[in-house]
């Protein structure tokens, strides 16, 4: 057709000035009404009226045949005048009604509103059927007498003749209100429209009914026009033209056959449009079919496309009535799947459902069902005249079924495609083509045909339209919205981003960065991005290059908007989500950009809320710096809480249960897999070590680094660190728990590159880190500081638990020296008292020796508790340098003036002038000291030819007796820990304490040394003879009795006789042999030494001296009481006895048992000998002395306190000086039996522990061999007659 028609180029091309992107197929059946606000903008006040008017979008009308029609209306706010020129082509484009709404305060404003209304009527007068004006006036004054009325309404109709609606009933309802408004306000004389007046605060309860009446009037006008069109004769119809076609038919013969068919076909299509708007769907379908056939026969492509589009619209009205109430653009979730093939469910208000074989469609609405069920015949006009242009039956419709000539759902898409192809043949129909594609798209969305949707939308891009930039942006936004409805998110994002770039494209005079930012932000979903960076990292989907480019564009838009906070947030988002997808160079460049952006507004980990309510979640630089490891540190060892050990109460015989709740144990273990084994203390500084690495090629400053926690209140301390490139660095983060309970450590916060970030462990990917750490916080414990009165040591202890040592003390003592150390404890807590304190000493020496070396007054210590906050406590540790003073060393090696031996001690015999019952001296055994608590066996050597005092010969084991060795006593180093357990406050109630320690380092220097010892008898005492060496470098004063001192030069030795009182034999038998020396030391012997010229003094211990049985006899009181008479004269000690040669002398011996036990197996022996006073004694006196009677008798038992007497006669043959040795010896029968029974042999004359312990049940004479002598010997001088 266009090839045969010569177009005439007008000055202005008749094209539509604006696309209606909101149109859908169902709008073909709607009457178009302009709803416009006039006067000053008062959106809040007039919004209620607009909503009420828009609610009335359809009316029910009963025609003359009794069929109820539903007439739909479409309210618009803008309508270009030139669109009315297309009203013949498609009647739904013609504006039929006008409603204006305005607010006035005075008469002048009312006149202005009326003028605006009239100007709109004139503007659209060519197509306008009816108009109404709704005016809101000022509220009534409080003094008005009609204040109790709900509303005041005034109806003004200056065109009384044209009024088609009677409103008198309203005026009679409120006569006072009508009169009042008419008196106050009147419309101008040139105002020819009908107006409704309401008060500003009026509820407008009748507004909807008035709008319904107005719409009803529009319908009847439309119905009259339809009837007029239907009555036209086919021969007399005029040619209907599209605006641009007027130039094509100039000068053509309109009476030709083809042109007459064209005229009829176009009029038939126009009548079909009117029938569709009037609610006659069956007639409209038939007319569209007929018009389509007629127009196709003459090749009228433009109108063929219009008829095909009309067929699709009429069919869609029947098949998809739900599109009127629920536009698909409000439910984009419906088409998330691109391959959706689900059928659309039938609405609840639908009576029937029609299902297509190829696609699903909605059921027919109740409107169609009612219309078809009300009458079995198609709806006819109310006019009785016959129209030559009628709806010839193209198909038939049975009651309750769809029209037979309705398009199937799959046919609708095909007809739309044909219509678009026909429109595409006309350049001036580009707008019609575009709108048809949009309508087809929405129908395909309803039919769930995503591929057809994409096809129609893609076709829109190729339509050549003269659009402004704003309209191009609008087109992209609509395409984006439709793609989103079918789930094509990436395509939607592509066009949305195009729209964003169009807003700010180069050369634009007024770039709209706000809209550009909004659109780019909305395109995130299509690029598989989310505003929440955590979701992006979790999904790890999409196209990194596109995502990075989009984020950079978004940052640019935010910067151009002046939103520095948003720009910083998006740059942080980019670094956090795309860090792994960028090269090292890109990472460095992005980090520098972020640093520059944050210089204007630093980033913070809080959500940002845009003006439209969109929330931008926080973004955190979790991997900048990169966390390699996070370790929760325990408190310092001396501050760690410990359980106070409490003695368990007896719980009976049931000590454990064999039942194991394995499932419960596993559940608890799984629940607390992140639980830290140790405890933190309230108000104590705690530490977490974080290992970080800087992935950037330049130094990275991290400031205000703190721990992130949950649960109990936790005060974190800031930390600043500068990280070198690619070098792991350990950073210690500290904080203080303020409350008790469970602390949840979730990560740390940083401030780097100008951005504050919350780096949580659960968000750190690619590392074997738990999501959090759980630490139990116990109540606060007091803290103490410890000081000592002694100087500190350079090194601490090497003992166990050396890590709890908080201070040290060193002390150097001579062996036997005593000292003290004052410990000062200060309670450093400001609120907690020190209520519990335990002091224990641990050392590297044995427990018994430790008790002797250290001593603390526990009672005095506990009396000072509790210690108030900031208070102090002092106690003293008494220290004694316990050592072994007995060292095995030959006496000949000492630098002494006298040789040690029998001759050297002979002068002590003259001291023995005690009581006659004192026992004789027995030589001491050889001794070797093995250790501090064990002794080797001793051996006693007794010789009848020796002196009663024998020398000690002590030699080290394995040493040659001929070698000369100096006495040695090594310096000892003793380490000890004074451990303090303390607690107070609520922690004490909970059973927790702390433990710290003081390291004590003692150096024990040799002082004196006992190299040998012996026991000598005396009258009432005995002498403990010691060889003592001074091992110090100074002169020493030795005090061995209360008033006897001796000076010993440095490194010299001397022999010291110490008088000691004897003890009873029962006391000796009741003690162990090894304790005899200790008893001597503690009760009788005290050896004190003092370094002259100093105040250094000490006590020498005799621990380690072992006494033989003979020595023990000398240390004890004899159990026998001697009573001897010679020639009937009692013998006194040192008395002079004279006898005559050849005369018999009577010797009487009387023994009394003074012990508490009987004495058994006693042997009394009497011997005479001569002492040459040169160490030689002669016992062979058979030719010089004769004894009449036995000189040896046996006494089986001598009971307690019993006496026995022995008498004999002595005859001396030669004169001279004779001595008499009288002794009583016990036979050790029991000792021999014990030795045989046990299979063990003991040295003769020594006392063992096992032997002495048996004396509690048997007599001592059955256990050991004892010798008691009458001392001094009786000296008899024999003279001649």
Automatic annotation (TrEMBL):
Residues 1229-1240 have a biased composition (Polar residues). Residues 372-403, 916-938, 1229-1260 are annotated as: Disordered. Its main location: Golgi. The keyword Zinc does not apply. Residues 71-323 form the Trs120/TRAPPC9 N-terminal domain. Keywords: Golgi apparatus. GO terms for cellular component: trans-Golgi network. Residues 634-748 form the Trs120/TRAPPC9 first Ig-like domain. Pfam families: Ig_TRAPPC9-Trs120_1st (PF26254), Ig_TRAPPC9-Trs120_4th (PF26283), TPR_TRAPPC9-Trs120 (PF26251), TRAPPC9-Trs120 (PF08626). Residues 452-599 form the Trs120/TRAPPC9 TPR region domain. It is found in: Golgi apparatus. Residues 1120-1278 form the Trs120/TRAPPC9 fourth Ig-like domain. Residues 372-392, 1246-1259 have a biased composition (Low complexity). It comes from the Eukaryota. The keyword Metal-binding does not apply. Belongs to the NIBP family. This is Protein brunelleschi. It comes from Drosophila rubida.
